[in-house]
Amino acid sequence: MIRAGYFQFKPQFGEKEKNLNQVLSGLCKAEADLIVLPELPFTGYYFKDRHEVMRLSENPKDSPIVDALTALCRKNNFFIVTGFAERAKDKCYNSALLIGPKGLLHTYRKLHLFNLEKRWFDPGNIPLSVQNVRGVRIGMMVCFDWIFPEVSRVLALLGADLLCHPSNLVLGYCQQAMITRCLENSVYAITCNRYGADSRRLGEIRFTGKSQIVAPKGILINRAPSGKNDLFIAPLDVSLSRNKRMTSLNHLFKDRKPARYKKISE
Amino acid sequence: MIRAGYFQFKPQFGEKEKNLNQVLSGLCKAEADLIVLPELPFTGYYFKDRHEVMRLSENPKDSPIVDALTALCRKNNFFIVTGFAERAKDKCYNSALLIGPKGLLHTYRKLHLFNLEKRWFDPGNIPLSVQNVRGVRIGMMVCFDWIFPEVSRVLALLGADLLCHPSNLVLGYCQQAMITRCLENSVYAITCNRYGADSRRLGEIRFTGKSQIVAPKGILINRAPSGKNDLFIAPLDVSLSRNKRMTSLNHLFKDRKPARYKKISE
Asked: Virtual CA dihedral for A166, A171, A173, A176, nearest 10 degrees?
């Protein structure tokens, strides 16, 4: 059993300190083992150009935000998966960080960049992997990764019990598709989506909220409203995600025919 | 443009001639290029044992059913994808056949057998492949194949415009999941499900109807009722399934990172 959930909120573009403070105050009384935050919750999303990303992004190993989140994890004795604009020398990545009471534990760099992100960020260069949080195996993916069934499949095959999915969704497809992801892989998924808009001179991008937790067999545990702060935490029973049986004779993983799937990794 | 659809009906267990006559009369006035029938529409589904499958199954190259369907295709100038209990010497397969005015064109043998089917049938031993029907590339899959995202993915990567999906569904998950399949692959899918029950001394299995056609981007074109005959044919524009763009900078297939998906075919 793990107590896990999300904190949906509305970042303000470029206001890193204000956004961090929203998270710190939003989570200050949270009782949980693991909380997922949205994609890019500190910088905001709608960058002018790559130059602006470089200016706003941080090296997680030298970041006041990561330090503050680590202190929060220590105080509340939980873990956080958060989106993060990651600077690495002359590269920048749309990343997700796993942070715990002892600091940064893992960085995932978004593999499948959405639209203008291709101009702003470098594509991920770290293999998909699974991290252990209090005996629960979590797999990190970011936003648009959802549309590629391979991402959640690889994470589940690596043993993920729970997909942690920071998002800045603008379309309405993802929430239903994540139900399919949880059904086909028999895993949990926490999609934490931001809401509100980034309004800039360039234009405006609106985000759709409706963060959610889905259980194996595609059961929706909770879905947030589209335009309100929402902190939601639920106890998740990982014995369910470790049971890949669909019927007494069917096992979602043992029934797979990998030799017939070669085309997928060619 | 292809006019394609499904004929949902209620087979009676073991009544091959009656079931064939239902299809012949149901389709006698159909104007279409391609019609999908349910899984195992001639034998019915709930077999007592493998022995009974061997008795009721037929070699498609020596089958009065295939001959009659070929004559129907010739008369109405269309193609049929139908489920079929296929006998091949001492093996039997839960197959889908593509039949046209000139006869049998392709056999797909279900790769992922559901529950008791494992006792009745041999698993498929023919690679997934795509067939050309009047310039449209169709991919055949059968029922429970839907839960393995690899099946529709491989078919789409092979160029399928349209998934033809004969089914005998007993659960309620598939229809929504097929919407995700069509979204993630930007393909059409026709799921033809039977309805009614096979009531036998052993017990009863009920089937759920709700056959459907889904368009790329996951748009539901039509869904049948759960317990009524339904012949539905729609014009499908395959230029939509050949457009894999999600945004001006995103292409569902070119954005894939096959090197990161190795685990799937291991």
From this structure: 50
User: Tens digits of per-residue pLDDT, B215-253?
Assistant: 999 999 999 999 999 999 999 999 999 999 999 999 999
* Whole-number pLDDT of residue A263: 98
Q: For chain B, which residues make up each domain, given as ranges? A: 2-265
Cβ within 8 Å, pair B247-A157: no
Q: How many Cβ atoms are within 10 Å of B259's Cβ, its own excluded?
A: 9
What is the pTM for the complete model shown? 0.98
Residue B255 CB neighbour total at 10 angstroms:
20
- Segment A95-116 mean pLDDT: 98
Active-site residue, A52 included? no
pLDDT at A23: 98
Spelled out in words, what is the top-level CATH class assigned to the domain B2-265? alpha beta
Question: CB count, 10 Å around CB of B196?
Answer: 17
Minimum distance, in Å, between the CA of residue B16 and any CA atom of chain A: 28
Q: Do B256 and A173 touch (CB under 8 A)?
A: no
Catalytic residue among A10, A16, A110, A210: A110
- Say whether B246 and A147 touch across the interface (CB within 8 A): yes
What is the maximal distance between C-alpha atoms in chain A? Answer: 58
- Partner residue opposite A158 with nearest CB, options B147, B249, B263: B263
Active site residue B192: no
- Whether residue B139 contacts residue B54, with contact meaning beta carbons closer than 8 Å, is answered with no
pLDDT per position as a tens digit, B249-264: 999 999 999 999 999 9
| CB-CB contact of B46 with B202 (8 Å) | yes
Q: Predicted ipTM?
A: 0.97
